[in-house]
Amino acid sequence: MANDEVDAEPTGRLRSTVEALRGFVARIPFSIGFAVALLVTSIVTGTIVGAASETTTGMWAAGVATTIESAKWWTVATALVIPWDPFQLVFGLLAAILLLGIAERRMGTPRTIAALLLTGVAGVALGTLLQWLGSLAGEWWATGTAADLTLDPLTGIVGALIAATAFMRALWRRRIRIVTFAVILVFVLYDGDSSNVYRLLAAIAGLFLGAILTGDPSTLRARRSSHGETRTLVAAVVAVTAIGPIVALVNRTELTPFSFGSYLFSDDPIDLDTVMSQCGAAVDAVGDECVQQLALLSAQGFGMFLLSFVPVALLLLAGWGLRSGRRFALWLAIAVNLAILVFARTAYEVTITTADVEDGTWSAFDIGELVVWIAAALALPIGIIVMLAVTRRHFRLRAPWGAFRRFALTVAASFVVLAGAYYIIGLVTLDEYWPAATPWDLLLDTVKRFVPPHFAVVDPIVLPGHDLTSFLYQAVGPLFWTIFIGAAIALMRRTRSEDGAADDARLRLLLRRHGGGTLGFMATWPGNVTWFADDGDAAVAYRVINGVAITMSDPICGPGDAGRVIREFAAFCDANSWVPVFYSVHPQYLPVFEELGWQHMAVGEETLVRTTGLELTGKPWQKVRQALNRGIKEGMTTVWTSWDELPLATEAEITSISEEWVAEKELPEMGFTLGGMEELEDHEVRLMLALGPDGRIQAVTSWLPVFRENEVIGWTIDFMRRADGSMNGIMEFLIASAALHMKADGAEVLSLSGAPLATKPLAAGEEPPEPNAMTRLLDFLAKTLEPAYGFSSLFRFKAKFNPEYETLSMAYPDPLALPAIGLAIGRAYLPEVSPKEAVALMRTLTT
Questions:
Q1: Does the N-terminal peptide bond of residue 460 adopt cis geometry, omega within 30 degrees of 0?
Q2: What is the distance between the alpha carbons of residues 541 and 556, in angstroms, rounded to a whole number?
């Protein structure tokens, strides 16, 4: 192939979301056919217009009465293809096309058919068998559901979906499994209907069937996730558990220990005058029935209905905040679940009622059942609290203290005003309360106005008779929590002060004006703080760890101002009792540090490719040219773009590729000078994507801009990920294509970034420097960390591009501070290491 043909970027384009959906639908014939089958069976049986008739359920529905007692064995299969009513038909059609479609897309049609039937039949058959055995033994749930008959297409669909996760990459395998099981468990615990248990059993069967179909038992093993993905999963679990009370309220069931809130709401409103006429003026003199009526009456009204959903709203709010890493959201979720634990006694009382033990005689079996139910009521909130405690290191974003003070003042003031208004008006109309109330009773009732009714069923129960007091009785609680939620949203949006946002804008302006070197754009990354010179025309990005202020590469200033800026920043650090350390600085700044009497040492090598006049010719470029030619022959193309320009489907692909890369490593993610998903989403960062002939992403790289006098004069690579099964040499193909693109755009330099602890090759005839204690230490670290992070391997990979080398150095004022500096830099690169990751790292380093 001629050179002019080789030295051209093989450009392509991304599939649009519409094209991706069209391709998805074209590859799921069975799923569409199954949806049509559900529509047909609903028409034939009449469930398209109403609930299944007795004739339909008696012949085709699964349950103890039909499947076991009437020996209609076929019902375990027919129950999977007939919707119960129009609502289930709608959900079944959507699930067939979307969820079953995903399974078919991943497993193929034959495996999907097998998974649907096997998991669905297993879930229904095992569920009915357990119900039958449990009812014979007198188990509470089984006895209460033994008469149920079930028609449920979702059972097989859920089982097939979980089976298909074994064929997925780690990201979607983990997401789908966690969210699906969380949703199913919420319905099992808050509803307890037979179909929910069947779905749970089918999902469990799907886990093992997927491992069998793939022949890979490792698909059952939990895989580690990135910090961002952990936040997403935790947020999803918290949000899913929030819908539980809604499920309990809608279904009004007594089959689970989690339905304790629904009994407070009656379909037939209770009238105060009727209760007063039946019970008299003094509740103390009446029986338990009147007290129960009074409790139900106290929970009625628009305000109490809204107040009952406060835990739901707070958990959804916490889930939103957790997704973004907010520490306040973590504490909010813990507080709500602690409140559920504190008031779990209500679940105990309802469980006692549900047990319906005759004559108060409890057998050992009944006591065992009671213990199981109470443990279940406590297990969910305890499990959520433990999960949040274990993952707390992933939620580090805090609002400024000023914003938190405003939140606290807003919440406190609203509580005082609303509680005071109700109490004062209540005192004025105290003689109209029923039963007769004292000021102390009113004070306790004032506090209860802010607590969900199923949390506050405690004596005394008093009801206002005056219209204004009755309005406040209903309104103050919802109004307070509305203010609380609004203030919390405002708080969690303030992860940085407005000054911080302004600082970021100032920093970017200085970067465009002065450049800051090839690594300068890293100064904009989260976790850095910006110091500005007194004249406002220079800046230094840094982060303080254990009293050490570590800078991010070169100072951002004019060419002649480096000495002044470095001295001013050092004085600033001294005033704050910090040890200043300039990390990854380029050689032109070393004379300044030598004048200051500081010491410096090499900490890595940056590899630079000059793109002006670049030609991929000659023997030195042979390996790169071969990868480029191979990619072109195989139909590979590239796209130069940014995150904001990506279709949703492409964003999902990139996220999945990155998570797969993280999941394959038991070692902790590194940060500081190594960016991740969050950094590549910056609007000024560009992406170079390699696309296969089918339009799917094979590899991803991100490029940070290098500025000079408000112009982009080069790009620095940061993020590099390749998909499993991608072409050998895909990264060489992609970087070569990026270099050709930059050449065509007039860029001057391409930086392959720094290689930590690397040493550039010696020139011909050059002698290595005499080793000293520090160089020996660095050599030791390089060899030790190589099995874990492959720095040397990465450095050798970059050497394929015939780069120029620039040594990156660390400058520091005091050799005695080196141990503290070393620990601080270690924490900068590995800020969030769990005990498990630390063990994995040590195991890797010592094998």
A1: yes
A2: 8
* Residue 204: predicted pLDDT: 95
Q: Classify burial at 836, counting beta carbons within 10 Å of its beta carbon; exposed 0-12, middle 13-18, buried 19 or more.
A: exposed
Task: Calculate Rg over the CA atoms of the chain.
Answer: 33
Catalogue the E-assigned strands of 661-803. 686-691, 697-708, 711-722, 749-756
Q: Which residues pair with 530 in a beta bridge?
A: 541
Query: How many CB atoms are located within 10 Å of the residue 416 CB?
Result: 10
Q: How far apart are CA 7 and CA 47, in angstroms?
A: 65
Q: Quick check: 333 and 318 in contact, CB under 8 A?
A: yes
3-state DSSP assignment of residue 601 = strand
Q: State both tokens at 332.
A: 């909010």
Do you find a cis peptide bond into 435, omega within 30 degrees of 0?
yes
Residue with tokens 């391997």: 793
Q: How far apart are CA 38 and CA 53, in angstroms?
A: 17
Calpha distance 310→316 (Å, rounded)? 10
Task: Return the half-sphere exposure (C-beta side, CA atoms, 13 A cut-off) of residue 350.
Answer: 24
Instruction: Give the span between the Cα atoms of 510 and 794, in whole angstroms.
Output: 32
Tokens, residue 371: 């213990």
For residues 65 and 453, what is the distance between their CA atoms, to the nearest angstrom? 39
Q: What is the pLDDT of residues 103-156, one digit of tens each?
A: 998 899 999 999 999 999 999 999 999 888 887 876 666 777 778 889 999 999
Residue 196 and residue 265: Cα distance in Å, rounded? 24
Tell me whether residue 761 is exposed, middle or buried, using C-beta atoms within 10 angstroms of its C-beta: 0 to 12, 13 to 18, 19 or more. Answer: exposed
Q: What is residue 372's DSSP assignment?
A: H
CA–CA dist 446, 443 (Å, integer)? 5
- Name residues whose C-beta falls within 8 Å of residue 43's C-beta, 6 or more positions apart in sequence: none
Q: Is 455 exposed, middle or buried (0-12, 13-18, 19+ CB in 10 A)?
A: buried
- 615 close to 820: Cβ distance less than 8 angstroms: no
- Find the helix packing angle between 622-633 and 730-745, rounded to 10°: 100
Distance CA 211, CA 63 (A): 29
CA distance 25 to 116: 19
Distance CA 560, CA 563 (A): 8
Rounded to an integer, what distance in angstroms lies between the CA atom of residue 821 and that of residue 743?
40
Contact assessment for residue 234 and residue 215, using Cβ atoms and an 8 Å cutoff: no
325/676 Cα distance (integer angstroms) = 15
SS3 (DSSP) at 67: helix
Q: Which of 189-193, 266-270, 457-461, 482-486 has the lowest mean pLDDT?
A: 266-270
What lies within 8 Å, CB to CB, of 779 at 6+ separation is 771
Amino acid sitting at position 166? A
